Amino acid sequence: MSVNRKLEAVSNGGTASSSDAKETTVQSQGSVHNTKPLYQALLNVMRATGMVAKNGRNEFHNYAYATEADVVETVRPHMVENGLMLIPHVDSVSNDQHGNTNIIVNYRLYHVSGDFIEFNIAASGNDKNRNGVGDKGIYKALTGASKYAMLKLFRSEEHTSELQSQSTISY
Questions:
Q1: Helices (H) and strands (E) in the chain — how many of each?
Q2: Could you read off the pLDDT tens digit of each residue along the chain, which spans 171 residues?
Q3: Model pTM score
Q4: Rounded (10°) angle between helices 68-81 and 36-48
Q5: 3-state DSSP helix/strand/coil percent for the chain, to nearest 5?
Q6: Strand pairing category for 51-53 and 157-159
Q7: What's the CA gap between 29 and 18, in Å, rounded?
């Protein structure tokens, strides 16, 4: 559902009289409030968290990757410092015969001002093994959704450290 509301945007970011405010139109999915403090906090986190280290290693396919823990370690302190909190809610779950669990997660990014934005992330996790389909697909999907929600929200990039790149075998 698309929402189009007229908002009172306060130029100093705080409470002000109607003479201090200007009218702004915001279009978004879901509920919208005065988002200026939230967007400033989001920008602050983006400035502080450019790159995320790739400390995970997939030995089978021979590549390094950023784990969810790597992303959280990089982003969380800056989120807390800027009064931001990311809350997930799983909207849908489906499973298939191949062991894939597909989910849609709705995230709300809250600011201490009470402002929030929301967005959806689709993710999949697989837990098929020789005994059939296991119970870990949902957790793998949630981990992937959480990792990419933070990476994309804060426009962070994954990078390989110099030490890791020296030990990587090239084909």
A1: 4, 11
A2: 333 333 333 333 333 333 343 333 344 445 555 568 999 999 999 999 888 888 999 999 999 998 999 999 999 999 999 999 999 999 999 998 888 999 999 999 999 999 999 999 999 999 887 777 778 999 999 999 999 999 988 887 766 554 444 433 332
A3: 0.69
A4: 130
A5: 30, 40, 30
A6: parallel
A7: 27
